[in-house]
């Protein structure tokens, strides 16, 4: 009889639907039509069917099980000693006879339709069997996809200190549905260089069988990802004789680009490898305080927040003066945390100034914000709001590739407007110049892939009109040449 077991259901690539297939003949039925027709085919006498005996009605079994469970609840309440006796045993050591004793004497345990795991490996085998069955379904959809199989991947460290490479596939399936599937979470126990990352990616591609249909990669801007793409290209050529351009197929995470531009704006730095802040504000040295202080108003604000949050007594003092409203702490990994800290501080400006007026402490005396410092912070906040808004527009599954260059055009325009408006400002001018330079660097790198321009041109509401209206003529001409490289 048809059931949900993987061995009785098949995927028809021609129709794009699942179907039941009779093991006694070549008859098949669409799964969406229910089980009545295939069941009739099995039980009807020959030659129309196979004359198999009819099974017990499923509804009766469901009713029986519901009755059993309801009676079991009553039994457990009336005989708590039996309930405790069962709870004291592990799952694989429950005696079926003892379990049956909990139910009405007229009900055999076999009617429940389940059994205990035979060994401690049984449940693992059940899970792996289900996994392999589902994986085979996904593999069939990937291998019959209408589009190329595009990959987004990232390397991160898990809470238990494992280096995990996540690999996600994005494609249009045979039935024209946009699909996303996690293909692998690879434990990278070797060096995190491009060669070893490419080896891991090739293993995933080989396992899922789409080397000849590999599309674009979306990754952050780490240097080892460039090396990984070159190593991947060599691996595809050697193993499959496939020519794969590592530059044109390399797309960059726009959130990461905005993150770098925002940091360059905030701290006027070219350092793209800002490390995680692991100090949590408890062991800050005098040298570190002086270094932050040199960064201007933001550095002073950072020092003050760290100073307050590194002591329970100081936290209580600030909460008393701020009516239980807390300051937000920044971190170096996400520029948006600086925006959050800045917004909270501006909202609590009176409490911050009141703290310095009421408690003068030597450790933070040099971090008192002057009226001019607060003016600078007021100027920074609205610009960071625009960057945050742009980042949000490029997040989630709703963001598409055609928005990337449009968003970069918008951000660059904001930097250029800021440069013009603060050309004589000794603090703000370098900030806007630094952020613009970082953003422009990655804007130029977008020319290495035709995918960005193609996404705009193929969008019905943009086409070439957007490029001709917003870009210089020489940029539009180079874009057309870039489009010609697409096969």
From TrEMBL:
High-level lineage = Eukaryota, Fungi, Dikarya, Ascomycota, Pezizomycotina
What this protein is called in its record is Transposase-like protein
Q: Does the keyword Ribosomal protein apply?
A: no
Species annotation: Hirsutella minnesotensis 3608
- Keywords assigned: Metal-binding, Nucleus, Zinc, Zinc-finger
Q: For the region Disordered, what residue ranges are annotated?
A: 79-99
Listed GO cellular component terms? nucleus
- Cite a single GO MF annotation: zinc ion binding
Q: Which cell locations does it reside in?
A: Nucleus
**Superkingdom of this entry's organism?**
Eukaryota
């Amino acid at each position: 009889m048809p059931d949900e077991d993987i061995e009785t259901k098949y995927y028809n690539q021609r129709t794009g639907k699942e179907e039941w297939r009779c093991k006694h003949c070549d008859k098949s039925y669409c799964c969406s039509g229910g089980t009545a027709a295939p069941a009739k085919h099995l039980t009807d006498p020959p030659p129309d069917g196979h004359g198999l005996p009819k099974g017990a009605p499923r509804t009766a079994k469901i009713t029986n099980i519901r009755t059993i469970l309801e009676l079991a609840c009553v039994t457990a309440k009336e005989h708590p000693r039996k309930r405790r006796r069962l709870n004291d045993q592990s799952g694989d050591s429950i005696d079926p006879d003892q379990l049956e004793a909990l139910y009405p004497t007229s009900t055999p345990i076999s009617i429940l339709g389940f059994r205990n795991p035979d060994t401690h490996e049984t449940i693992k085998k059940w899970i792996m069997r289900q996994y392999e069955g589902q994986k085979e379904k996904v593999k069939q959809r990937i291998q019959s996809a209408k589009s190329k199989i595009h990959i987004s991947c990232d390397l991160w460290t898990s809470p238990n200190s494992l280096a995990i490479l996540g690999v996600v596939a994005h494609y249009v399936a045979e039935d024209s549905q946009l699909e996303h599937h996690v293909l692998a979470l690879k434990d990278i126990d070797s060096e995190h260089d491009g060669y070893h990352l490419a080896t891991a990616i090739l293993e995933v591609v080989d396992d899922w069988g789409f080397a000849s249909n590999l599309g674009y990669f979306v990754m952050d801007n780490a240097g080892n990802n460039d090396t990984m793409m070159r190593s991947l290209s060599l691996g595809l050529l050697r193993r499959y004789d496939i020519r794969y351009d590592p530059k044109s197929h390399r797309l960059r995470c726009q959130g990461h680009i905005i993150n770098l531009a925002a940091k360059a704006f905030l701290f006027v730095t070219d350092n793209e490898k800002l490390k995680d802040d692991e100090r949590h504000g408890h062991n800050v040295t005098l040298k570190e305080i002086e270094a932050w202080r040199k960064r201007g108003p933001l550095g002073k604000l950072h020092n003050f927040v760290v100073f307050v949050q590194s002591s329970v007594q100081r936290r209580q003092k600030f909460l008393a003066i701020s009516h239980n409203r807390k300051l937000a702490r920044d971190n170096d990994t996400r520029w948006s945390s600086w925006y959050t800290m800045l917004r909270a501080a501006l909202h609590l400006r009176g409490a911050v100034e009141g703290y310095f007026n009421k408690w003068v402490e030597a450790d933070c005396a040099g971090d008192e914000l002057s009226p001019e410092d607060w003016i600078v912070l007021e100027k920074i906040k609205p610009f960071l709001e625009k960057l945050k808004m742009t980042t949000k527009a490029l997040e989630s599954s709703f963001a598409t590739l055609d928005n990337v260059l449009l968003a970069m055009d918008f951000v660059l325009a904001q930097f250029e407007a800021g440069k013009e408006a603060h050309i004589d400002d000794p603090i703000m001018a370098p900030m806007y110049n630094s952020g613009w330079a970082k953003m422009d660097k990655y804007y130029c790198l977008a020319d290495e892939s035709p995918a960005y321009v193609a996404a705009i041109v193929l969008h019905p509401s943009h086409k070439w009109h957007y490029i001709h209206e917003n870009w210089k003529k020489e940029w539009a001409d180079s874009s057309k040449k870039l489009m010609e490289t697409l096969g």
